Fold these 2 entries.
Entry 1:
Amino acid sequence: MDTIIEIKELKKSFGKLQALKGVSCGFETGRVISVLGPNASGKTTLIKSILGMVVPDSGEVFYRGQSVINTFDYKKHIGYMPQIGRYPDNMKIGQLFEMMKDIRQRHTGLDETLVDAFNLKSMSHKAMRTLSGGTRQKVSAALACLFDPEVLILDEPTAGLDPLAAEVLKEKIQDEKAKGKLLLITSHIMSEVDEIADDIMYLFEGQVKFFRSLNDIKTTTGEMKLGRALTKILS
Amino acid sequence: MLKIAKYTILDITRSKVLIAYTILLALICISIFMADADVTKGLVSITTVVMIIVPLVSIVYATTYYYDAYEFTELLVSQPISRKSILMGQFLGISGSILAAFLVGVCVPVALFAFSDTGITIMVTGSLLSLSFISLAFLASTLTRDKAKGIGLALMIWFYCSIIFDGLVLLFLYTFADYPLEKAMILLTSLNPIDLARILILLQLDISALMGYTGALYQQFFGNGWGVVFTIFMQLVWIAIPMAFSLKVFRKKDL
Amino acid sequence: MRSKILIVCFLLSCAALTAKTIIVSKETAIASLKAAVKLAAAGDTIIVKKGTYSSYNTIIDKEVVVLGQGLPVLDAGYREEVVTILASNVKFDGFVVKKSRVGSMRDFAGIRLHKVQNVSVTNNRLLNNFFGIYVSDSKNIYITGNYCRGNSNKLESGNGIHLWKCEDITISKNYVTGHRDGIYFEFVKRSFIKQNLSEKNFRYGLHFMFSDDDVYIKNTFKGNGSGVAVMYSKRIKMIGNAFIENWGSSIYGLLLKDISRSIITNNRFIRNTTGIYMEGCEGIEVTKNSFNNNGWGIRVLANSLNNTFHVNNFSANSFDVTTNGSLSLNHFKNNYWDKYEGYDLDKDGTGDVPYRPVSVYSQIMEQIPQSVMLMRSFIVNLLDKVERAIPSVTPQSVKDETPRMKQWIL
């Protein structure tokens, strides 16, 4: 187990709103880490900071010991599934996948399990603008996994997915974890987190309230269900 | 960067707006040339059109496209590509598409009906004008977060450059008519890309009148190619500077 | 008997005199024109063979015909004048005349004619002279087919063909360049200037002062420092000339100052800063001319009156007509204006609404010349459109009630 992503004293504010007030933490490989927290607690900002989509005011993000501020090369090791995936309207699914391969310059060693599982190839001629929210989520998930990255960041991955697809995705998450990857997931669905997560990182008003393993939480609170355990800790 | 440009162009060619723009330009040009046998008169009318429509469409279209492609940009930023490549790629893509529209809509008819020094000047200045307004569009878009605000800002820039600026210059001239304003005028002109383009065309169409102006600086400016070099250089500056600023903003921008 | 012999002798000698031809050649004893003139009597012919002859202050004071064969060169080497003709009925043809002295006190000339009549100066090449051909106090002179190139030095140039106080002169088919004024007229009456080309002279292509009843036809004046100036003269006819590319501030294709009862017709004004400039003119008819690509087509100062502008073509000028005041006493009719935007519902070839050639922007330019930089801008177009719809600034009276819809074929 080695620490792959390390965050030190990360601060970010949007105007008057302080989204992150000095977050420090480290993520190890082979774990599924669930980032929880109420709305506007800084989850998405944290994820976007890791991805370089948000430029932090201060603090550092390290990827395998290297600062990532103003670099982009490390992103080839990361697969990202956004909360709401939106793509060029006029593009077709097939073209989108081709383009991503072209941009990443990888045409071999691809992981197409989700593409197959979601049956996306049969829809490859459909334009993105005609797709439902659920199908877009499928596309996003498949894209995130396509390049077999060592880190997967999934923002609300199952929201909008039908139960079957959600199951497929959860299975995929377990598989990836088994391969020794780091998975960073935000979710509001406690049962789901309960099912897949190893560690829970709880953000509250831009600060890490706690970062503990799921088992630890359950044993200290004596609750079997995560939801109850959380209410107990937070109250 | 070139890949981004390629996909931007592919994306734009699938939309109908740019095709409509091309057809509009071509229709205007051809009808102007058909309506009047006098080619020079036709070029004058086309100049007027180029000075108004080309900047307007360029800036509004580029701004709209930037916002429409916002999520796509987000997606790209999460990929291993530098932000500079993303924005420059989009700039190149949009520029390429709009220039292609201008080429087909204006350059081809002008080349067919009125191939002359003036015709070539219109082609060159129109192209440079498109580019500088796309560049300004990127600046407007990166500076604002909201699509409506961005388009509003873009429209304001256009309105300012095409009408208000010249009005202010006229006012300025009236106020300071008693002072030697040669240098000031050349400087003022370089503060507006539309004026630069206009001057470049004036140097072709109205050189006889321009030569009537007293003053060594103007004589030099209009008389011996110096003016052409200067205006083209300044137009290039108007493409480079807003884009450079927008890159600077985009580098630090949260998506 | 003796008297008879005397008469025969006289007749014989006369016959001998009229028939006498003197050949000037480097190889013979008569090695200069000066020597030949000394030997000649009235009525003789002097033929100068090909070659270069030093000739300064050669004075032709006898009624002789002087012909050059194979363009012999008369070179004054910048000492005084080359040839001076002081006798009437002289014909001077076919020489290269060059290098007269440049002076600030006297007007040294390549060929000077003074107080003579019926002299013709034809087919000569005048090179690097201070003045080319200088005619004073003379009548019935023909200056034809000469090529006249000055020394191209702005400060040391005289006029190409200079006439002072002459009558009944014909100047035709000459080419003048590199002089101060191409052709200069002062106190010259009843003369013709025809088919000459005057270009790239430092001042005027043609300069006219106090000369009445003259006609100039089918000349071309191109790229001269200050265009053509016609001043203080009456009854001048200017027909079929071309005024081309006379550029610069205060430079006019045709400058008219204090001219009256004259005719300007069938001329072409192309790419001049100002086509015609009129100051203090009266009773001038400007008809059937075309004005193309000029900065200003016509500029008429308000002190001009009773001038008429009919059946002219105005196209691609930056401004068609401008003035510094009102032009209420001048008349525009039946002209073609390319800027006219009216309509012709009754299809009679004439627009149904009048055209106002003086634009509001040209009025602004009057006050602030710097606003030249705003030409063709949106704001200026807007101002002009508004003014045409609701006239308030531009002189109301200046309008063409019957503008043509199509160009005149002139």
Entry 2:
Amino acid sequence: MILPGFGQEAQEKLRAAKVLIVGMGGLGCPALPYLAGAGVGTIGIMDGDTVSLSNLHRQVLFTEEDIGSNKATVAAARLQLQDAEIKVAVYPYTLTNQNALDIIGQYDLVLDGTDNFAAKYLINDACVLLKKPFIYGAVSRFQGQLAVFNMPVAEGRPLNYRDLFPVSPRPGEIQSCEETGVIGVLPGIIGTMQAAEVVKLITGLGDLLYGRLLNYDVLQARSYEIRLSLQPEIPVIDKDSFLQMNYAFDCEEEEDVPEINVAEFNRLVQQPNIFVLDVRERHEYPAIDFSDAQIPMSELQSSLETLPEKEICVICHQGIRSVYAAQLIRARRNLPVYSLKGGLTAYFNQPGK
Amino acid sequence: MQIELLFFGSLTDVTTVSRLIVENMTDTELVKAYLEERYPALRAAKYFMAVNQQMIQQVHTLQPGDVVAFMPPFSGG
């Protein structure tokens, strides 16, 4: 390849790079041959699904002969035809919180080719724990989203997917591709753009799509970019909670934790059997006198056993962390639990406070 | 004063339009309250907001001509 800025050094970086593609569907299929073509030395391919007829319009690596075969296995065979020297690892099964840290840990970065929220949150959280960048892509009907997350930063913490959407959508809240359908060329566009970001990230060329979300509308042929910022209420991810979280359950089946408004909260705290739990960090203001305990979100996981056998009402600054905390308490302690909607911000906004 | 609102992805199922002009809205909370009144299904929807292509984390004061974007998560692939 002869391109300005794309010399031997860039080629050597690509040759040394290890990229994991999770999901060999509409996004992963177009990304893979371009990563191989660019000279990425080691590529991991992960997908537990088999090829079906309805995939072929957008999953362009596959043919009718592949129907019924595992996607990762077929894709790896195509890759070796393209370039026999590439080191290929095949993972013909689904990413879970039990295998994610081990597998992702062996790579420099992850290209997200998945098609569901459970997998996207799982990849995000694993990459946060392992401090690995990931290249996010997703489509919805005629629009696609693209961003690079979790790049190392000199100060503070890097942006990740939970800065955009701290907790996963509820069942049926956002339709998946299977329900809504997608025009095949759209994931083709987004997937190749993800591959381009991978090449830029490895070589250091150009401006990476980090700190920005790109939305592309294929019908309008128009893109819209949003500069991103850190979400202060982001749930804390630690290894223990990661390993214990049921991502599929969290994203698809979990019933909502009841959220109560300030008026309901005021009534509830009059009850004798209610325990008000503040999950803000200790440095957060204002101090309040109506909570029964303060256990910061970052310590909650290890302090769950200290909660009494009462109805728990969880509060925080804005009512986002408290939902996450309440889900954890219900899952692990099976206590009746509520979250104050809008948090202390809403509480102190009521007249007379 | 006019404010331009842009809706992305599945949010247009709720609003039926991808672009809307509203008058006399001085901050993003007022815009949200107006939209939730007009489109109750928006209350249950997940999205983040941006003003002039900058994501916001709290209420933001609006100036004439500002563009407010509503961006939901996508999951397809």
